[in-house]
Amino acid sequence: MIPVLKPLLALAFTLSFTLPARAEIEIQQVETPAGFKAWLVEEPSIPFTALELRFRGGAALDLPGKRGATNLMVALLEEGAGDLDSRGFAEATESLAAQFRYDAGQDAIGVSARFLTENREAAVDLLRQSLIAPRFDQDALDRVRAQVLSGIRSDAKDPDAIADATFDALVFGDHPYGSDLSGTEDSVTALTREDIMAAHQAGMTRDRVVIAAAGDITAEELSTLIDGLLGDLPDSTQDLPEDVAVETTAGVTVVPFETPQSVAVFGQRGLARDDPDFFAAYVMNTILGAGGFEARLMQEVREKRGLTYGVYSYLLPMDHAALYMGRVASANDRIAEAIAVIRDEWAKLAEAGVTQAELDQAKTYLTGAYPLRFDGNGPIAQILAGMQMDGLTPDYVTDRNAMVEAVTLEDVKRVAADLLDPEALRVVVVGQPEGFEDADTATP
Question: How far is CA 126 from the centre of its chain?
């Protein structure tokens, strides 16, 4: 009988999330006999390990007419594997005091595992079964499908979800990015067990996996663990989607929806993560819309005019496209003014750049907040996986703040002039907005 160690695991999680914040960590690069590569940060002080896996491709690999297959498949990975049905898998996971999480994204499938050193072998074997031999029992498929369909119906009544879906469809069309990864009611209803098995074969492949770990495990132990965990995965046989160029034009698309407050998303082309100007754009965006209450958009739209409770912007580099996005919500009779102010700020920054005081404040904010991210094994493993997905090197951890400090006023001005384009800023508004007489209309 495997002992129930829930109190011990809870303590391990608590301790792992309260270690001193640090950005100066030693990243080991591990290569296994089977050819897998992983990044590791050893932390032997707590008998607990966090493991992160990312499988490149994600929901963007859904076949035509099978939208939602990857999302449904990933949701079924913990619903039975090997000799264990859904209930048996859940009971085994609990008895080991382990935690597994499976997520589907447009560009990757994510798997997170947390387990105690004492139960490492048994926990990893259970995880392996979910990755290599998921059951996809019909009763579990039907139950989880019903949950997914409920979410799709809920999103159809959610202004935020409607705005996102409308913007994506306008920008990306028939590309996988142009539709929600959950699929539609029709596509998900039509999915068969064979479709789910095909999505598993396409999405969980050994040649597209990214691996990171942090905690009480050595490089040698991690190497053995990885080969045993992933060695039986297949190689990929399906190509990744094509890259897509983002081409937008200025204008507003209104989706009529009965609500006293309109929701708006706005965006244009962005920068790829490996673009030489990405860091300057990152600092610039902190000043424009990602720096909390000190950001220009918050100051102009909320603080000075009281048009919203919140407005923000963000860079969104994806594997096959890059966007520069933002979001705001305001009363139906004031949303047009809020959008006009956002356009003005877009144009002002493009024309004049930023001040030295703004730049200094942004640098202080970004460099001060960075070490706080490294506050435990789980966050560290997630950061290591994300760095690999972005094509970064291990020394990024120590060099990142210096890269922020190296951004100059001239860098920001140049990047702002090149990137920010009010004539390409497309806005989607969901609600009953006033003041958009010339707007396009879309069906929710």
Answer: 26
Q: Is the pLDDT of residue 19 over 60?
A: no
Between 290 and 291, the higher pLDDT residue: 290
Residue 284 identity (one-letter amino acid): M
pLDDT digits (tens, 9 = 90+) for 391-431: 999 999 999 999 999 999 999 999 999 999 999 999 999 99
Query: Is-contact 114 215, C-beta < 8 A?
Result: no
Look up the pTM and report it.
Answer: 0.93
At residue 24, the pLDDT reads 67
Question: Which of 385, 301, 389 has the alpha carbon at shortest distance from 337?
Answer: 301
Taking residue 438's Cβ as centre, other Cβ atoms within 10 Å add up to 7
Question: CA gyration radius for the chain?
Answer: 23
Q: Strands, E, within 92-250: which ranges?
A: 99-104, 108-116, 209-215
Termini Cα distance of the chain: 54
- With bands split at pLDDT 50, 70 and 90, how would you rate the model's confidence at 3? very low
What's the CA gap between 283 and 401, in Å, rounded?
Answer: 11
Closest CA to 36 of 55, 49, 18: 55
Local structure of residue 49 (DSSP, 8 states) = E
pLDDT of 2 strictly over 60: no
- Measured CA to CA, the distance from residue 102 to residue 245 in angstroms comes to 30
Neighbours of 54 (CB within 10 A): 24
Strand residues in 106-241 grouped as ranges (E): 108-116, 209-215
Q: Which amino acid is at 142?
A: D
Is residue 366 within 8 A of residue 287, CB to CB? The reply is: no
